[in-house]
């Protein structure tokens, strides 16, 4: 009898176990199987679309070796032959336009050089020099305060590669006598016949110098930076902007890669989604690097062309 009771009890337990397993089978399957599948899919995706750990680098540097020659030509004191002078100052009338015309006449007749173009800024710098000599009572290329023709060029906003100055003091008979006095002096003649100059400014006036009324004249010669191919500052600014953007992208890429390596969920994305975003950013980064290299190469070519012009003009 006892054996029959035990058999019935065991049968009941087995039926209960079967019932429980059958009841929870769908729940267990729905929870466990997708998890396993997700792990398998994630692992597969990582190997299928591995993030790119090699990024292009900026290997071309921006040239800042711009050779703006600041050559200054200032011959020594002018020795004026007496034949060029008169002592009746009221009979003298020197005109800057005539001085320029006669200067260009000698350039053409002697060396076949093109005429110098009158530049208002050089006229202004020549005028400043002339007035400064009268006010401070000196006759030198460098003022008592240390100001020379290069400083005057900067003051009037004249951007130059080459600049020069001729000074004259005396009661010249006329404009021709003034220019002839310069032509009789080797250093001043060299300025007038310098084939690199393209522009000129002149100022002439009489005034008081050491208690005497006397005429002074100033010639300023120049070769402006515009004579050579330009260097685009806009392009330089674009390169700076792009390089700053590259640095920001590098920081963003580093942050995203750290999160991918850690396996953490970021911005609601799984690892696979983060990898896709990372790879798209890498592509954008590499494309920008190519664009920057092109811009830098163009800029550096402009610098080389300018420097070659400066050296060869």
Protein architecture, described:
The protein has 313 residues and is α/β, with parallel strands linked by helices. Helices cover 56% and strands 12% of the residues. It contains eight helices and five strands; from the N terminus they run H-E-H-E-H-H-E-H-H-E-E-H-H. A five-stranded mixed beta sheet has the order 1-3-5-4-2, sandwiched between helices. Strand 4 and strand 5 form a beta hairpin. The protein is elongated. The protein starts with a helix and ends with a helix.
Q: In summary, what is this structure?
A:
The protein has 313 residues and is an alpha/beta fold.
Defining key terms:
single chain; 313 residues; alpha/beta
Q: Helix content range of the residues, please?
A: 55-70%
In terms of quaternary structure, the protein is single chain
Please write the string of helix (H) and strand (E) elements. Answer: HEHEHHEHHEEHH
Query: What fraction of the residues are assigned to beta strands by DSSP?
Result: 5-15%
Shape: elongated
The total of helices stands at 8
Biggest sheet, open or closed, and with what strands and sense? 5 strands, mixed
Number of E-type strands: 5
Distance between the termini: 127 Å
Widest beta sheet: strand line-up:
1-3-5-4-2
* Radius of gyration over C-alpha positions, nearest whole angstrom: 43 Å
């Amino acid at each position: 009898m006892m054996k029959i009771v035990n058999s019935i009890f065991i049968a009941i337990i087995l039926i209960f176990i079967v019932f429980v397993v059958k009841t929870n089978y769908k729940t267990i399957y729905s929870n466990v199987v997708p998890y396993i599948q997700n792990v398998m899919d994630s692992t597969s995706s990582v190997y299928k679309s591995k993030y790119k750990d090699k990024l292009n680098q900026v290997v071309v540097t921006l040239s800042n070796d711009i050779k703006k020659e600041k050559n200054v030509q200032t011959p020594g004191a002018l020795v004026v032959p007496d034949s060029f002078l008169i002592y009746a100052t009221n009979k003298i009338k020197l005109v800057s336009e005539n001085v320029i015309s006669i200067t260009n006449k000698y350039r053409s007749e002697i060396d076949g050089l093109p005429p110098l173009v009158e530049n208002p800024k050089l006229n202004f710098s020549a005028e400043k020099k002339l007035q400064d000599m009268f006010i401070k009572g000196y006759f030198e290329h460098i003022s008592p305060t240390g100001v020379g023709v290069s400083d005057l060029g900067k003051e009037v906003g004249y951007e130059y590669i080459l600049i020069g100055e001729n000074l004259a003091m005396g009661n010249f008979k006329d404009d021709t006598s003034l220019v002839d006095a310069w032509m009789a002096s080797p250093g001043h003649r060299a300025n007038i016949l310098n084939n690199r100059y393209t522009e000129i400014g002149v100022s002439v006036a009489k005034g008081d110098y050491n208690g005497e009324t006397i005429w002074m004249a100033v010639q300023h010669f120049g070769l402006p930076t515009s004579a050579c191919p330009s260097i685009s500052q806009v392009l330089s600014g674009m390169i700076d902007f792009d390089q700053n953007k590259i640095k920001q992208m590098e920081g963003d890429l580093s942050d995203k890669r750290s999160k991918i390596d850690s396996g953490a969920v970021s911005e609601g994305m799984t690892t696979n989604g983060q990898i896709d975003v990372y790879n798209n950013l890498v592509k954008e980064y590499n494309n920008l690097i190519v664009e920057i290299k092109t811009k830098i190469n163009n800029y550096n070519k402009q610098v080389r062309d300018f420097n070659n012009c400066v050296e060869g003009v």
